[in-house]
Design a protein that fits this description.
Length: 161
Amino acid sequence: LHLCKGCVALAVGLIFATTIVLTVGGAWCVWALALVGPVTIALSWPPFYQRLPRGLRDLLRMGAGATFALAAWVAGSYPSLAWPLLPALLLLWWLFRHSRKKVIAARCNGCPELHAPGVCSGYALQAACARALEDEIEARMGASLAGGVALPPGIGRAPGG
């Protein structure tokens, strides 16, 4: 099973922060979340994120893992302190996702394959890799991830995939 560098960085941040929080958690976690969460989200804002150096993007992924661990712990341990902070983080996350969708959609503007059925040539490699990962997971689980349900038309495998 192969994971991308960004996913590994996210997992490292999540595991590291969870270990520290469970070992020496306290009210400082609220302040750490107030600092790490907004900074991580602001620096990861989709229009700017791809322009950052790879090392900084990996640190931001670690920060995202730490933010998730801190938010979960703070919400469970200090709900009265967390109530103003968590809704603000959720609003930031919603704005982040909305902005990311726009950036991703803009990549395809002007492409002659935009309205063609199936996977375009620009994403054929990514689709093939995702399907290879799905096949590996299914082989290890011994069960289909699709649950035996046929895929809708236009979502079938790309030629050669």
